[in-house]
Design goal:
By secondary structure, the chain is an all-alpha fold. It folds into 2 domains: about 100 residues, no CATH class; about 130 residues, Alpha Horseshoe (Leucine-rich Repeat Variant), CATH 1.25.10. The protein is about 65% helix and about 0% strand. The chain contains 15 helices and no strands. α9 packs parallel to α12.
């Protein structure tokens, strides 16, 4: 890290100021323009590559891990999450991941508010925070799934995307599959490409633990599945299986 690490305990506001200072120092305007290609909507970014952001996250974690409890990490999140730059939001998610064993249930409702308030207004921020952080909360507090099941009805597309990607960790492990398929079904009516892709990703992960169930689900609901979702969902099937599923569901359209 470019700044000297001090031994005394630092407050969230101090670390937030340090993070923003480091992000500005490492800014790469040319890379920022290149990064914009990965987003359909305008996204403010400093132009940091993913590996640079993760390295910075690790260094910040080393700085605070012996000083802070999870409450202070959440306070840091409250300061940085509204920052318009995507790297600041991603660093919040990365630091919360590091403290995932100690996440309080109340954090879920704070994250829900961050999403509803459009602080997580791009796929990179949502996908860094939700699979691991919200996923960890779901594993620890399964009753929270009742709240996430409501997200597909939100007018906020990022909350709807979060509804899918928050179950990625469970789907990958073959857990909560009834809920995974329930939320996927609710998202079939979504006409946002960014949500359709997330839903396909979720189904693909679910298929890793039970490919037969995924195949049966896709064939059953073929007429209602957006083609984008379907193509993502079948990526792990063999070429022949993909061709067959596409053919059978196409006949139903």
């Amino acid at each position: 890290m470019d700044k000297k690490i001090e031994s005394k305990k630092e407050k969230p506001a101090q670390i937030a100021k340090l993070i923003l200072s480091l992000l500005k120092e490492k800014a790469d305007p040319e890379q920022a323009r290149m990064n914009q290609r990965f987003f359909k909507e305008p996204v403010k970014n400093y132009g940091l590559r993913a590996e640079v952001i993760r390295s910075l996250g690790k260094e910040i974690y080393e700085r605070i891990k012996r000083q802070w409890k999870i409450e202070e990490v959440i306070s840091l999140g409250d300061i940085l999450i509204s920052n318009p730059y995507v790297e600041a939001k991603i660093l919040v998610a990365l630091l919360l991941q590091k403290f995932s064993r100690n996440l309080p249930k109340s954090l879920f409702f704070k994250i829900e508010n961050w999403l509803s308030s459009d602080y997580l207004n791009n796929w990179a921020a949502v996908d860094t925070l939700c699979p691991d952080v919200v996923g960890s909360l779901l594993l620890r507090y399964p009753e929270l799934k009742a709240s996430i099941i409501k997200w597909p009805k939100s007018s906020n597309r990022w909350l709807r995307r979060a509804g899918a990607v928050s179950f990625i960790r469970m789907a990958r492990k073959g857990k909560m599959l009834d809920d995974v398929y329930k939320i996927s079904l609710l998202l079939f009516k979504d006409d946002e490409d960014i949500v359709q892709k997330a839903n396909g990703w979720l189904l693909k992960e679910a298929g890793k633990s039970d490919s037969r169930r995924l195949r049966d689900f896709l064939l059953e609901h073929g007429p209602n599945i957006p083609r984008t979702t379907l193509r993502y969902a079948i990526e792990k099937f063999s070429a022949d299986e993909r061709k067959e599923i596409l053919a059978q569901t196409r006949k139903l359209h």
